[in-house]
């Protein structure tokens, strides 16, 4: 279970990020972090699954990565988190260092599509929370990288931005190698489990 210091710091960070986002007119300038109840649910899933390898696509300022890393320390896992903007990745790294979580996280800066194409490692747990318009182009690589027989992919914002992810979710639902369900936490999580 996350300790009190971690929970207090993450709560304060979430409030800071929310205040920042409220001042931004341009969506791209917002940090757009996952909601606290969704983040805690992911932490619980990692613990339940006893994940050893975790991939996050869309670090932003690191709010979700911190939750993933805290759970990863409990299971002995390693995380790779991908972010296209170097400034945000560096910001996330500073929070990880502050909370002594940096040893569990590898920060990768660049285009997620490039990383996914060249990746060979399979992952127990993948969180997809990036630019939704690119998701359909990720699917062929993602399904190759999800560990067979119980690997999990979580897609965020599937209720709040249902129209934007509809095509992608339909692609996944049509693939008989995966089971899926939608979970009504935060902005909506789509859970994909490899058979």
Automatic annotation (TrEMBL):
What PROSITE patterns does its record include?
SAM_OMT_I
Q: Which Pfam families match?
A: Methyltransf_3 (PF01596)
The protein's GO terms of the molecular function aspect are: O-methyltransferase activity
Keyword Flavoprotein applies: no
Q: Which Gene3D superfamilies match?
A: Vaccinia Virus protein VP39
Q: Give the GO biological process terms.
A: methylation
Q: Keywords assigned by UniProt?
A: Methyltransferase, S-adenosyl-L-methionine, Transferase
Note the superkingdom of the native organism: Bacteria
Q: What is the protein's given name? A: O-methyltransferase
Query: Which species does the entry assign this protein to?
Result: Acinetobacter guerrae
């Amino acid at each position: 279970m996350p300790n009190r210091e971690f929970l207090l710091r993450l709560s304060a960070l979430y409030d800071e990020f929310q205040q920042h986002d409220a001042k931004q007119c341009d969506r791209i300038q917002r940090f757009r972090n996952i909601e606290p109840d969704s983040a805690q649910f992911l932490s619980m899933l990692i613990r339940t699954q006893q994940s050893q390898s975790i991939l996050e696509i869309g670090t932003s300022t690191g709010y979700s990565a911190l939750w993933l890393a805290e759970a990863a320390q409990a299971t002995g896992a390693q995380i790779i988190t991908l972010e296209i903007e170097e400034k945000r990745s560096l910001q996330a790294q500073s929070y990880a260092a502050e909370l002594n979580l940096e040893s569990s996280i590898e920060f990768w800066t660049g285009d997620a599509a490039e990383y996914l194409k060249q990746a060979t490692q399979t992952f127990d747990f993948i969180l997809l929370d990036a630019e939704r318009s690119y998701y359909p182009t990720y699917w062929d690589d993602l399904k190759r990288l999800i560990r067979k027989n119980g690997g999990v992919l979580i897609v965020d914002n599937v209720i709040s931005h249902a129209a934007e992810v509809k095509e992608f979710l339909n692609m996944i639902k049509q693939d008989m190698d995966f089971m899926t369900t939608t979970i009504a936490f935060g902005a909506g999580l789509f859970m994909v489990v490899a058979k």
